[in-house]
Amino acid sequence: MQSKLITPEIKAFLISIGSVSVDPSLIPRARGSTAGPGAGTSSVFFRSGNKRVRLSINKDSPLSILKVEGEGDVGVFYQGKELVRGKLEPAPAHCPDQAFITLCERCVFDCKYCPVPKLQGHVKSDEEVLNIIDEVLRAGNLKAISLTSGVETSIEGEVERVLKLLPALKKYNVPIGVSVYPTEGCSRKFYEAGASEVKYNVETMDQEIFKKVCGDLSLDYILDRLREAVDVFGKNRVFSNFIIGLGESDDSVRDGIETLAQMGVIPVLRPVNPHPLRAGDCFTERPSPERLLTLAKLEAEILKKYGLDPGLAKTMCLKCTGCDLVPFVDF
Ligand code: SF4
């Protein structure tokens, strides 16, 4: 068959399923994902043209990746039909082309959709972090360094952890992104220590849902920190994950995108990832392809109005684009 590239409709369909079965021999290099709600699963990154999608590996998925004709080429198949053709990308540290590192894989908070507090994983030493970055550098894939972290004991402690590490990262001479739970004034400190971009996650812009799922935290507080971040880093350099599928209405998503964009923040519309360790802890519903497309187009219109462009991102999720339909990159 003719090579088939990813359209926004196909990417929305793949994301809505979110998983794929794949013969391990086809995977260039698999590592466990330890960043946020994708924690504890292994994934593949499929690239077609200049578009990318991340799918978690699940042998029972209705999607499968199979070898097709052509050097390194694979196809994504659904019900025996090839939907799209491309290649699998290596992801030496969480995602392609970046060293995206979770410093602390534990969290004292208890956001109801997130498996990290249940996994209570490893806390990396600075030496381990630098070794991972060196490994990505050696593989020839280091275009950015992105740092994220759960909260081991305190929010202030995580900000300090990043600030202590940042001076040692300057030598790599690549853009650095930081995504942690913020403290007042931390953006200025991150910026002065060499960060290029920050991502502070609102998770949802629906106040009622926020109270139910992130009850230990405050949405207004995060919005204040995002405002500070835009003052420091400028437009197009401040992002925020906005989960889709926690029971919010499309109207509340539109209002939430508008509020963030007006502040100069680019929302990352992230389909919820229902995790078995969180079964029954809160409402989660993976969005349909139609809903993903509708909301991404809505986001594109609003971002355009405020002069925001996710295609300018240098680090973290908007650079990777694997998990989301990204305006001005995917369509
Ligand atoms: S979009 Fe973000 S969370 Fe998803 S694989 Fe890429 S860097 Fe990781």
UniProtKB/TrEMBL annotation:
It holds the Pfam family Radical_SAM. InterPro entries: Aldolase_TIM, Elp3/MiaA/NifB-like_rSAM, HydE/PylB-like, rSAM, rSAM_sf. SMART domains: Elp3 (SM00729). GO terms for molecular function: iron-sulfur cluster binding; metal ion binding; transferase activity. PROSITE patterns: RADICAL_SAM. Gene3D superfamilies: Aldolase class I. Residues 93-305 form the Radical SAM core domain. Keywords: Iron, Iron-sulfur, Metal-binding, S-adenosyl-L-methionine. This is Biotin synthase-related enzyme. It comes from Methanosarcina vacuolata Z-761. The lineage of its organism: Archaea, Methanobacteriati, Methanobacteriota, Stenosarchaea group, Methanomicrobia.
